[in-house]
Amino acid sequence: MASESEPSAAVEDGVRRRDFINIAAVSFAGVGTVAVVLPLVNQMSPSADVLALSSTEIDISAIQTGQAIKTSWRKQPVFVRNLTTAEIDEANKVPLGSLRDAQTLAERTKPGKENWLITLGVCTHLGCVPLGAAEGENRGDFGGYFCPCHGSHYDTAARIRKGPAPTNLVVPPYEFTSDTVVTIG
Amino acid sequence: MSFPWANQYQPQQPLMKWLDEKLPLPRLVYNAIGSGYPVPRNLNYFWNFGVLAGAALVIQIVTGIVLAMHYAAHADVAFNSVEHIMRDVNAGWFIRYAHMNGASMFFIVVYLHIFRGLYYGSYKAPREMVWLLGVVIFLLMMATAFMGYVLPWGQMSFWGAQVITGFFSAIPGVGEPLRVWLLGGFAPDNAALNRFFSLHYLLPFVIAAVIILHIWALHIPGSSNPTGIEVKDEQDTVPFHPYYTAKDGFGLGVFLILFAALTFFTPNLLGHADNYIQANPLSTPAHIVPEWYFWPFYAILRAFTFNFLWIDAKLWGVIAMFAAIALLFFLPWLDSSPVKSSNYRPLYRKFFWVLVADVLLLGVCGKMPAEQPWVILSQIGSIYYFAHFLIILPIVSRIERPEPMPNSITEAVLAKHADDASAATA
Ligand code: HEM
Ligand code: FES
What we know:
The complex is a heterodimer of chains A (185) and B (426).
Chain A: H1 2-13, H2 17-42, H3 48-52, E1 56-59, E2 68-73, E3 76-82, H4 85-93, E4 116-120, E5 143-147, E6 152-155, E7 160-162, E8 174-176, E9 181-184
Antiparallel strand pairs in A: 1-9, 2-3, 3-4, 5-6, 6-7, 8-9
Chain B: H1 14-22, H2 25-33, E1 38-40, H3 49-68, H4 78-87, H5 92-120, H6 128-150, H7 155-166, H8 175-183, H9 190-218, E2 237-239, H10 240-265, H11 295-303, H12 313-334, H13 346-367, H14 374-399, H15 409-425
Antiparallel strand pairs in B: 1-2
Helix pairs in contact in B: 3-5, 3-9, 3-10, 4-5, 5-6, 5-10, 6-7, 6-9, 6-12, 11-12, 11-13, 11-14, 12-14, 13-14
Residues 123, 125-128, 147, 149-152, 163-165 of chain A line the site of FE2/S2 (inorganic) cluster.
């Protein structure tokens, strides 16, 4: 009979039936737990409607040289700034080695459109909206943007120059759909 | 555990006898906070704050559940629903002001409770576990209060949420995805508001559970006392009820008077006016400040204005802020002096008061804008804070010569009585 031969068979190859059942049961419970925990963790990630807001069209025809506007993309503020020639020159004059987060203005804009500086209006320190996009606001020591929360100064290429922020203002993914319309996202 | 001379629970009525056999809940209460719990006879009013913290938690839960009946956790209407509570709901203004100021009162008594522990050495063996659980409660309270402050969806709510969740983005690599996961979006919005409400409702009950563990751990060695000398025999203790129920009852009365004064006469004293402006994701208030109970930690966060070693300023600030609290977990092992009470520790006693002054200084720095002289003061204050725990305390506990101590609690009490009596007759 099979059941009678079992104990001796188990001793021979060193594996007991009970060990196998234990390991199988615990592994199965483990896989089951993971299968339940994953959706419980993942439900916290941005939902489909939040992700659906991920592209925005902006008409930039009304922005005069030297002016900027604030708009919003994925519920985050975006700065669109039409740089003056003086501001462009100033940004290009800065030696790259002196920058905390070394990038040229050209790397931060589109070819032939160096005057259009488009960045998130989210300070890379702890996320305040820097000043400088609206008329008359403090643009900081380097003429770009100034974050009042903990005093970060950004230059005319929105690069971090002074204060606690670790990196430059983020350039979101965008494209010129025409000369006057930009699609962000 | 309890002392062998503790009073025994003896139910008299048949109903209580029946209950004691089926579910000895009255026995548990009797042994925990009734006549069956012997307590040192010499506790002073600093031993009231634990009970007061418990009362504050009950007040938060009761007012909170009522607020939740009228509040709507949706970014479009949350702000207006709080205004609706303030203007339309019957006595809504009272309940909300009680909840707002209840949070402040809760932190006031908990801070006093913590500093009581620091002064009288309550964190030392055999009560390390009591202290560790206390630090856990403190962390949970901070998380609860932070999420509660987001709920009214005012300007400070929104920008507080933005800045605090921004801490996580300082973590290299996983930081930004982690932040997006926590918020359920790229900036605080409906998803964040809803989950904060859910957790704000949950955490106070978790706190209640940890408080039960805290008291369980406390009742194994029993309460400490102002001399720091352990109980030796029956003479040293009195039953909790009626002696300390009466003393705590008096303290509770004083607490409620102060609480009522704050709630009725200056309900917005400790709040920030900007939180009566609805959240605007496109405009940051000129000066973001957290609630007063976070100021010292906020000052430590902002003290790092420069990169140091290979870690950037932002990450340093976040590490330092969390370390300032995490340090408390190690306190029982940083202080090696066998003497508990500062009453007999001439050197530690002085540094204790310097630490109190330092935390107050950091508090002021955390409130002020990030400008000089506050930046340099918060840097000095932060260095001192860490130096106190990591350098001064270990050294002091080795070199200090404690003052002579009485042999027992009873001897200390009787000596004090003799002094008082001779002073009275003189
Ligand atoms: C540890 C205990 C608690 C603390 C420290 C705490 C703290 C806070 C704080 C600081 C606020 C913001 C007040 C304001 O500025 O308006 C708040 C709001 C709120 N809390 Fe709590 N809370 C606690 C327990 C609870 C509980 C148990 C509930 C519900 C079951 C609750 C429900 C609410 C609601 C609905 C609001 C939004 C209404 C308002 O802003 O007044 N809270 N809480
Ligand atoms: S958030 Fe901008 S400097 Fe801190």
